[in-house]
Design brief:
The protein is of the alpha/beta class and 420 residues long. The chain has helices at residues 22-32, 62-65, 81-93, 105-108, 113-119, 144-150, 174-194, 204-211, 213-225, 281-287, 302-305, 309-320, 325-333, 345-349, 352-356, 397-403, 408-416; strands at 13-17, 36-41, 72-75, 96-99, 124-129, 199-203, 256-260, 271-275, 339-341, 360-365, 369-374. The protein folds into two domains: 13-210 and 351-417, 3-Layer(aba) Sandwich (Rossmann fold); 256-337, formyl-coa transferase, domain 3. The structure holds oxidized coenzyme A. The site of oxidized coenzyme A has 26 residues, from helix 1, strand 2, helix 4 and strand 5. Belongs to the CoA-transferase III family. Frc subfamily.
Length: 420
C-alpha cells in the first residue's frame, strides 16, 4: 500500500442525517473511504439503533456501532428554529447530505430539496425511501422485509411447498445504501463537470428488484415457453403464471443444490453448495466417483439430467457421507467443481483468512472494548480503510458548533434551550 496517497474521499464533507440501516450503511462506507461524515441525531437517544438489541446495558448496541464507525456525532433538535439554523449552516459548507427518514419528514422540518439546493447549489442530496415517487405506496414507512416483499425477493425465496421467505442478507437496507452510494459518487463526478449538485434518490423496492433481475428474466421466460427447465418443478410439476420458489436451485444455467456432508445429523451447517457446471461435467463425474456418467446418454447432457437431477444429487450425497464439508470441498476444488462449505456465522467470525484480508475486523469502541465487525469488502491497491469506533451521542456537538462560529455563550444558550 502507498501510504502517501490521501484517502480517496478526503475533503468530502457529508452530513449524515440517517438512521437504522439503509442510510447509515451508505455514509459509513463514505467514512471508511475518507470522507468527513457528521451524523446528525435526535437529542433523545439519537439513532434508534443505539438502543435496539443491546448486549451490554447502557452501552450503544452493536447494531449502531457496526453501521456508524468512523463518523462524528452532533446531537441537535432540528425542529427548533435554532437547530434548523445550524443545519442550514452545515448545508452551506457540505458536499453531501444523506437522509432516510419517513416520507415527508424533511419537508416538514423545513428542509425541502428546493430549499437545500438554494442554500448550496453544489450539494448532493442523497435520499432513501421505501418506494419511488411514482409508486402508489410512496407514503409508506418501510423496513427491510417490507422491501424484500415488494421487490420480488420474498415471492421467489424459499421452497415451493412453504410460504414466501425473507433472506437474511439485508437486500432492503444495506443493499439500498450501497446503491445510494453509487449514485452519490456518480453525482460527485457529474459535479466536477457541471459545478452543480443534484438529488439522488433510491427506493428500497427498486434496489431489491435490481438484485432480483434474474427472477424477472425467469418471469419473461415463463411467459414465453410455459416452463423453467432449471427449477426443481421441471418437468414433473406444472408451472403457474408467476415465477415459483425454487428452493436451493441455482439461479443461472448451472444446476446446483445444498448437499449433506458427514455429521449433518448433529450439525445444522454440515452442508456444501454443489454446482454442476456444464462444461465441467466429465471432471465432476470423476470427482464424485461416477466416471460411468460421463458418456451415459441419461446423464451426459443437461437436458437428460434435469428430469432426474435429484437422484443425481442423492448419489453425490452418498459420496459425501464420509467427508466433512471441508474435506469435500478440498477434493472437489481439485476437479474445478464450483462449491463451498455452508459456513456458520461462528465459522465466519473466527475465520483467519477473513481477518487477514480485513473483511472481518476487530474495532475498539469506547466503553465496550473490542468488538468484531465487517471491514471493507472493497479492496484498493493504493488504500486500505482503517475502521475506527462509532461516536457517542453528541460527542462532537461542541466542536462542530465552534467550527461553525458559535461562541461559548451561544453554545451555552442552545444547551439551556434544549436545542443541543
Ligand atoms: N431533531 C428533531 N426531530 C428529528 C431529528 C432531530 N435531530 N431527527 C429526526 N427527527 C424527526 C423526523 O423529522 C420525524 O418527525 P415527523 O414524523 O414529526 O416529521 C421523526 O423524527 C421520526 O422520523 P423517522 O423517519 O425516523 O420515523 P420513524 O422512526 O417512525 O420511521 C423508518 C423509521 C425507517 C420506518 C422511516 O424513517 C422510513 O420509512 N424511512 C425510509 C425508508 C428507510 O430508510 N427504511 C430503512 C430503515 S433500515 O431498516
Amino acid at each position: 500500500m502507498n501510504t502517501e496517497v490521501p484517502q480517496p474521499l478526503s475533503g468530502v464533507k457529508v452530513i449524515d442525517f440517517t438512521g437504522v440501516q439503509a442510510g447509515p450503511a451508505c455514509t459509513q462506507m463514505m467514512a471508511w473511504f475518507g470522507a468527513d461524515v457528521l451524523k446528525v441525531e435526535r437529542l433523545d437517544g439519537g439513532d434508534v439503533t443505539r438502543h435496539q438489541l443491546r448486549d451490554i446495558p447502557d452501552h450503544d448496541a452493536l447494531y449502531f456501532t457496526m453501521l456508524n464507525s468512523n463518523k462524528r456525532s452532533l446531537a441537535i433538535n432540528t425542529k427548533t428554529p435554532e437547530g434548523l439554523a445550524v443545519m442550514e449552516k452545515l448545508i452551506r459548507e457540505a458536499d453531501v447530505l444523506v437522509e432516510n427518514f419517513a416520507p415527508g419528514a424533511l419537508d416538514r422540518m423545513g428542509l425541502s430539496w428546493d430549499h437545500i439546493h438554494e442554500l448550496n447549489p453544489r450539494l448532493i442530496f442523497g435520499s432513501v425511501k421505501g418506494f419511488n415517487e411514482q409508486s402508489p405506496w410512496k407514503d409508506l414507512k418501510v423496513y427491510e422485509n417490507v422491501a424484500q416483499a415488494a421487490g420480488g425477493a420474498l415471492s421467489t425465496t424459499g421452497f415451493w411447498d412453504g410460504p414466501p421467505t425473507v433472506s437474511s442478507a439485508a437486500l432492503g437496507d444495506s443493499n439500498t445504501g450501497m446503491h445510494l452510494l453509487i449514485g452519490i459518487l456518480t453525482a460527485l463526478l457529474a459535479r466536477e463537470k457541471t459545478g452543480v449538485g443534484q438529488k439522488v434518490s433510491v427506493s428500497m423496492q427498486d434496489a431489491v428488484l435490481n438484485l432480483c433481475r434474474v427472477k424477472l428474466r425467469d418471469q419473461e421466460r415463463l411467459e414465453a415457453v410455459g416452463y423453467l427447465e432449471e427449477y426443481p418443478q421441471y418437468p414433473n410439476t406444472p408451472f403457474g403464471d408467476a415465477v415459483p420458489r425454487g428452493g436451493n436451485a441455482g439461479g443461472g444455467g448451472q444446476p446446483g443444490w445444498v448437499l449433506k456432508c458427514k455429521g449433518w445429523q448433529d450439525d445444522p451447517n454440515s452442508y456444501i453448495y454443489f454446482t454442476i457446471q456444464e462444461q465441467n461435467w466429465a471432471k465432476t463425474c470423476e470427482a464424485v466417483g461416477k466416471p460411468e456418467w460421463v458418456d451415459d446418454p441419461a446423464y451426459s447432457t443437461a437436458e437428460a439430467r434435469q428430469p432426474h437431477i435429484f437422484d443425481i444429487f442423492a448419489d453425490i450425497e452418498k459420496w459425501l457421507a464420509d467427508k466433512t464439508k471441508y474435506e469435500a470441498v478440498d477434493i472437489l476444488r481439485t476437479y474445478d467443481v464450483p462449491c463451498a462449505p455452508v459456513l456458520s456465522m461462528k465459522e465466519i467470525a473466527y475465520d483467519p483468512a477473513l481477518r487477514a484480508s480485513g473483511t472481518v475486523v476487530e474495532v475498539e469502541q469506547e466503553g465496550r472494548g473490542k468488538y468484531l465487525t465487517v471491514g471493507s469488502p472493497v479492496k484498493f491497491s493504493d488504500f486500505s480503510p482503517t475502521i475506527t469506533g462509532a461516536p457517542l451521542l453528541g460527542e462532537h456537538t461542541i466542536d462542530v458548533l465552534s467550527d461553525l462560529g458559535y461562541t461559548t455563550d451561544q453554545i451555552a444558550e442552545l444547551k439551556t434551550a434544549h436545542v443541543i
